[in-house]
Amino acid sequence: MSQKEYINKIFQGDALTVLKGLPDKIVDVGVTSPPYNKGENKKGWLVKNVKYAGVSDKINEDKYQENQIDVLNEVFRITKAGGSFFYNHKIRWEQGRIIHPMDWLRKTKWVIRQEIIWDRMIAANIRGWRFWQVEERIYWLYKPENKNFIGKELEPKHALLTSMWRFSPERKNSHPAPFPIALPVRAIYSIMNDKNGVVIDPYCGSGTTLIAAKILKHNYVGIDISGEYVEMAEKRLQDYENELRCAQEEICKHIVLKTFKERKLNGEFTGRYKPNDKHNNSYYKQDEMNLFSYTKNVK
Ligand SMILES: C[S@@+](CC[C@H](N)C(=O)[O-])C[C@H]1O[C@@H](n2cnc3c(N)ncnc32)[C@H](O)[C@@H]1O
């Protein structure tokens, strides 16, 4: 397939089938939230069940996990070495047994670089079998370059945003399970900084990742099985300027006054506790408080 055929396109079809038709090493970063295989017959007490147009979200769990492994390995193939993929999922329970995304992520070709907690602060199901589960997970998956499994460091302005991402669920979107635009903006901007590249979302739904990519001046590739959602995403992409302010709000959080390196060179607080040195006194405490108030301000 030539570049013209996939760049800035949304494919309507099954993710695995479409991915198989795409060339190797064309993507810099991806963000997605697949269907969770949650079972449409399980009711939450606060909101309606998630039901996608034209596709069931309940298949045999083993088959579901095999399919997710295949999809993730295809995304790995089409990602450039050094590229990243952000995979949003959640912990589920079936008949009291935990089903953790790590169960299948460890079987893929990706290096699992980080498990990020997405604190949504609210969720649909409030039964008392467990404490109210208001968090989801975002897995930062990494494709090693030259057998380097660690990869490059993030810029401090991104890394300081921590491994706990606090975004409320998206409410102004008629798709049944969209994520807020701040989520893909944070992921893409943190990896790409000011470089331009290609962003993929193989379950793009209403196109949130693709809008984020467009606002950040990247090319995109989207896939969704539902014609209705592909249309929704196309329409949103045309009107992407309506979402500039929300994306900008997230970008504004990526600032840092002094980098770790600068603080280290100046002998200032770097987060390391060393008894009996000048940092273990009021100077240290003051500096720690400055850093704390700084991070509070950028949140
Ligand atoms: C959680 S939603 C993604 C929502 C998206 N992040 C957004 O912000 O709008 C999952 C999407 O996967 C799509 N889907 C389900 N099965 C699929 C498949 N086999 N291939 C491609 N897309 C699929 C659904 O239509 C749905 O839009």
The CATH homologous superfamily of the largest domain = Vaccinia Virus protein VP39
Helix content: 25-40%
- The CATH class assignment of the largest domain is Alpha Beta
Strand content: 15-25%
| Main sheet record | 8 strands, mixed
Total strand segments: 10
Based on the coordinates given, report the CATH architecture of the largest domain: 3-Layer(aba) Sandwich
Assembly annotation: single chain
Radius of gyration: 21 Å
Total domains: 2
**Distance N terminus to C terminus?**
43 Å
Which terms summarize this structure?
two-stranded antiparallel ribbon, 11 helices, 2 domains, eight-stranded mixed beta sheet, alpha/beta, 299 residues, Rossmann fold, 19% strand, disordered C terminus, globular, binds S-adenosylmethionine
Question: Can you lay out the helices and strands and say which pair or pack?
Answer:
Layout lengths: L2 H4 L2 E4 L2 H6 L6 E6 L28 H18 E11 L2 E3 L2 E3 L2 H4 L5 E9 L15 E8 L13 H4 L4 E3 L15 H11 L5 E4 L6 H8 L3 E6 L2 H12 L5 H8 L8 H6 L16 H17 L1
Parallel strand pairs: 1-10, 2-3, 2-9, 6-8, 9-10
Antiparallel strand pairs: 3-7, 4-5, 6-7
The protein binds S-adenosylmethionine.
Model description:
This protein has 299 residues and is an alpha/beta fold. It folds into 2 domains: 3-256, Rossmann fold (3-Layer(aba) Sandwich); 257-299, no CATH class. A hairpin with a 2-residue loop joins strand 4 and strand 5 (97-99). The longest helix has 18 residues, at 61-78. Helix 6 (182-192) packs across helix 9 (244-251). The protein has helices spanning 3-6, 15-20, 61-78, 102-105, 156-159, 182-192, 208-215, 227-238, 244-251, 260-265, 282-298; strands spanning 9-12, 27-32, 79-89, 92-94, 97-99, 111-119, 135-142, 164-166, 198-201, 219-224. Helices cover 33% and strands 19% of the residues. It has an 8-stranded mixed β-sheet with strand order 1-10-9-2-3-7-6-8. Strands 4-5 form a two-stranded antiparallel sheet. The structure holds S-adenosylmethionine. S-adenosylmethionine binds next to strand 10.
